[in-house]
Amino acid sequence: MIDTADLGPAVGRQLSRPPITRFAPSPTGYLHLGHVVNAIFVWGVARAAGGRVQLRIEDHDRVRCRPGFESACLEDLAWLGFVPDDGLTPLYRQQDHNRRYARALARLVALDRVYACACSRREVGGERYDGLCRDRALRHSAGHGLRVRLDERSETALDLRHGTLTQRPAEQCGDVLVKDRDGQWSYQFAVTVDDLDQEISLVIRGEDLIESTGRQLAIARLLGRREPPLFLHHPMIFASQGVKLSKSAGHAGVCALRNAGVRPEAVVGRAAAAVGLVPPDTPVPAREVHRLFGG
What we know:
The protein is an alpha/beta fold.
């Protein structure tokens, strides 16, 4: 099992006030055990540190997101016993905040950091964008994406499990896409703006997103964020051969377990055991997950 008993107190030692964190699913499929792991860490560490949890629906992808998946997510969370502190009314959906993202984009435009990009995802190819359109002076018009020109500098933040994270996003990924060719806000941009505006001081997410840290810190700094949030990138559940659980593949769906008669504390316990938080077959009620983190 992994040692997490000090994570709650560690947050208190690093932050001057109780943390604000978020649980932020994308409604592109049903919740699975990987989401339950994230909920355990989010609610558990926040409660152990005397902090608050906000619920955010990250539905920036208008093509893949579905209202039915959102309602199923809310039902599963309520059944499991994970309750956000600010309630569900109004529910924070990214699609309701286009003006917020537009204002943030305008701020970057005023800094002369934004340029239009005609490259398709296929043309970009790998992880890093080589800046092909940086000096082409393309119009900010339909059919063009928008990218933020990044500095050649390092970004640093503290992770409670991995220690100091230092990344150079300009080398790692190149200039970051903030709006795609279909007019949709990118994940990297939308989540950064949300975390800044919602005053998120503790970002808790899976280790698959650890490489996003530097580019989000760079955008946040350009938008005026003075202090980076504290991070906690937690372990993940894998289906097989290093393949992470997927909503689209229907892996270990919470809804299916609920319909099969599995109790909510057994589902939470199964997820906790899968990442070494408790021994196998240990029921864990959602209201008690803070005990796993020193609370």
